[in-house]
Structures are given as C-alpha cells and as structure tokens.
C-alpha cells in the first residue's frame, strides 16, 4: 500500500487541501479501467497506525490485488502522522512475502471516514472512540474479527503488539491473516451501489 498523502515531500498531515479527503494513491488496489466504477473503500484503524492497521492494510491489499473495485488504507485514532510502520511489522510482513514500501502513518479524521465505505477497527475500544468522536459514521464501523470464519476468533480484539517482541507481531499477523478473507466475502456479498 505506496504514497499519496505525501508527507515525504513536506506535505502537512493537517493540510486538507493536499489530502482532498480521499485515500491516497498509494493505497489503491489497482487502477480502475472504468472511471465511473464505484469503489469499495476499506479503511483499517488501530491506535498509532504503525503496527496492526498497516499490517491489515498490506495483507488486505494482497487479497484484492487483482481487483479494480477496491481501495485500501489505514489510519490511527491517536497516530503521529508521518511515521513508518514499526520494524517488526515490516519484518513479519516480509516473512510472508508481503511488501509495504513507502508507508506513512496518518491520524484518522472526518475526511478519511467520509471517503471510506467500510471501516474495520482492531478493537472494541477503537470502535467506541470513533463512534464517540464521529457518530455520523457509526454505521460503517466493524470489528476486524466480526466476520471471521473461525469461531474462536470472531468478535475478538486483535492484541496490540506494540512494545513487544517479534512473536507478538507474528501472532497479530496470523490472526489478521485468518480474519481478512471473510471481510472480502462479506463486502462482496452485501455491496450495494449507493443511490445517485
């Protein structure tokens, strides 16, 4: 998932004109051959946008890499904008053969939520935080494990590996790896094109 909201070129995370309230190009699953195609814009949210949500973003992008109807991004409810993904996040993704080059964290805001069609959070706490701050977007917020095929994972928070060792990151990745395919299935089966 590669740059768009270009903090590397000096763009401010608070520069709304530069961001246009859209998921940046780096988070696009593929170029649409049909400009009028309605995209499913999936946003993953955790706390700092350096561990779990970048992991989910990269894994989900891999799942939909051949699809032109998906855009994928991530953000954090308390993120410091412009940070890279954590070292262990990058390492465990690479162990799985998934690259996440050019990643830059960003703070969740109303524009990102408005642009997203689906918002998947890592914990019930994130859902409550977003619903409290942005109640108008509550209907599009889901727990990332909400549709997991594995009963033991469904409804569970994805534990925050921040500050822990590589094993905690591997566990988070393994859980996300099992949860994300069900999200694609859910979106595809329930997607309705918004009325004009």
How would you describe the overall organization of this protein?
The chain has 196 residues and is α/β, with parallel strands linked by helices. It is built from six helices and four strands, in the order αβαβααβαβα. The protein has helices at 16-19, 52-63, 87-95, 110-115, 124-133, 166-190, and strands spanning 40-46, 70-76, 118-121, 141-143. It has a four-stranded parallel sheet, with helices on both faces. The longest helix is centred in the last third of the chain and has 25 residues, at 166-190. The protein is globular.
Give the termini distance in whole angstroms: 29 Å
Secondary structure: number of strands: 4
Strand content: 5-15%
Which residues form runs of ≥5 with pLDDT under 50?
A: 1-33
Largest sheet: 4 strands, parallel
In order across it, which strands form the biggest sheet? Answer: 2-1-3-4
Keyword list:
196 residues; alpha/beta; four-stranded parallel sheet; 11% strand; globular; disordered N terminus
Question: Quick summary of this structure?
Answer:
The chain is an alpha/beta fold. It is 34% helix and 11% strand.
Topology:
Blueprint: H1 16-19, E1 40-46, H2 52-63, E2 70-76, H3 87-95, H4 110-115, E3 118-121, H5 124-133, E4 141-143, H6 166-190
Parallel strand pairs: 1-2, 1-3, 3-4
């Amino acid at each position: 998932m590669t740059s768009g909201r270009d903090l590397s070129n000096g763009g401010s995370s608070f520069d709304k004109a530069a961001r246009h309230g859209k998921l940046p190009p780096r988070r696009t699953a593929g170029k649409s051959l049909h400009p009028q195609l309605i995209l499913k814009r999936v946003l993953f949210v955790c706390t700092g946008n350096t561990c779990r949500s970048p992991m989910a973003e990269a894994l989900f992008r891999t799942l939909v890499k051949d699809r032109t109807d998906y855009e994928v991004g991530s953000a954090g409810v308390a993120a410091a904008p412009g940070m890279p993904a954590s070292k262990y996040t990058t390492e465990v993704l690479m162990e799985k053969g998934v690259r996440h080059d050019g990643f830059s964290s960003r703070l969740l805001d109303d524009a990102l939520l408005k642009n997203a069609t689906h918002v998947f959070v890592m914990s019930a706490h994130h859902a409550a935080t977003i619903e409290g701050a942005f109640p108008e977007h509550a209907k599009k917020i889901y727990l990332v494990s909400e549709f997991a095929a594995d009963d033991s994972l469904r409804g569970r928070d994805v534990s925050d590996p921040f500050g822990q060792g590589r094993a905690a990151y591997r566990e988070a990745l393994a859980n996300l790896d099992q949860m994300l395919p069900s999200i694609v299935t859910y979106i595809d089966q329930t997607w309705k094109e918004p009325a004009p």
